[in-house]
Amino acid sequence: MGCAGSSQAKADGGVKKIRKPKPWKHPQPITKSQLIQMREEFWDTSPHYGGRKEIWDALQAAAEAELSLAQAIVDSAGVIIQNADLTICYDERGAKYELPKYVLSEPTNLIRET
């Protein structure tokens, strides 16, 4: 249960809701398999950026889930959402977690493999 002084509460009293990232373009067109490889490399190395492994795991699960489930995951993990698209979050201890857009959505210039 949160309290009135909860750091997740916004000035209007509501919790910041997650939304999909705005459309974005990768510097060079990439394939789905390249995107998957980039995501795997990020998640494999993310605990080395600082913060707690369980928060990184929750952020990965949220990034790979539908919005309503993602919201439940970050809420239950105590993640404080700075940017509604999950690109910047904090844990309850104040550690910062930055997620690149490529782990949250596909670029507009994704090459469809046949």
TrEMBL record:
Transmembrane segments: none
DC-UbP/UBTD2 N-terminal domain mapped to chain residues: 16-113
Bias type Basic residues, positions: 16-25
Pfam families: UBD
Region listing for Disordered, in residue ranges: 1-31
Highest rank taxon of the organism: Eukaryota
Record protein name field: DC-UbP/UBTD2 N-terminal domain-containing protein
